[in-house]
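Journal club side-thread
Mid-discussion, someone asked how the predicted structure for our own chain would compare to the paper's figures. Pasting it here so we can look after the session.
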Amino acid sequence: MRIIKNFWKQQNTLERKLFWSILVVVTLASTGSAIFTVAEGMSAIAAACGFGCVLVCLMVAAVAVKTSLYNQCYLVMCCLLTCFLMPLLFLFCGGITSGMPLYYVTAIALIAYAARGTAKIVAFSVSVLVNAIVFLASWVYPNLVVAELDRDGAYLDILVTSLFTSLTLFAVGAFSLRAYAEERKKCEVLLYKLDYLSQRDPLTEIYNRRHLISHLQDVVWRRRNEFYLLMLDLDDFKRINDRLGHPFGDQIINAVARILANHQDEGCGECVARYGGVNFVYAMNASSEGEAFARAEVIRKEVRQLQFEDFPDVSVTISGGFVPCSGRSFSDIRQVLSHVDELLVFAKTHGKNQIRNGAD
């Protein structure tokens, strides 16, 4: 069982899972049908055709493992069954008096599980055409049917055939739905990861600039009376980065990002993002400008108090600009960002380690 589970896990695409699920079910059904053909006392040719179906399945499996051409192998298997072996079985196992029509319909239906493409349509069309020709030929020339079953034999054959085809279709459907569910779950996880990565800064894992701009336009600007924009930048970061190395520089950036993330309340629409380099933006929701500015000052002081084990003598400070989004001079969010950036530059050129607002 462990080998089977490991093999199943290695089938990392829906195409492969469907291929092996259907191939195993068809092989088992063919084996059971071949054994029943022998038990019924059918001709040696009928028995050979029955086991020929099993042999075809095994050969297709071997070729698929070697070439990885799963869809092509699957179509070849279906065509061999419907266009060659099934007609022979139909003629040597009782024709219309047997359960072979059920096998025929089941084999043709399985073509639907092949991947999309012209080859699939061609395989289906040819199989239906061959099926129709064989049926019409047996009707016009009854002597083509080698052996017709009596009433009891026909009922028994149809009963067993119904059982095998029902189990085959049920198993194929069940395995297919399971494989589809697994594939869908993988896609959902992948889409979640892609969505997460598209919104997050890879270093700090806080939101990135792209998400911030979208959030400012879709959420903040529509409720601008509630929001205040804080833009921060690390003071003298290049000097620290050049002297102590980029890994320590990344450590500082992450530490500042964590402080901002700890203050963020996404439930009320707040957003913290790395705007670029060592520049951060915090869209803050507050009941008044005084409250918002006080919170900004708390963040500045927490950054000032940061300590690092590897470099205990290093002191980190930030400068910032702060504006209410409801300012009368702002006609859109771009003007808010532009103005808060001007205040940030003013803070850095007039002493650093401070936050400037429009009232200063």
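Post-session note: Residues 41 and 88 are 16 Å apart (CA to CA).
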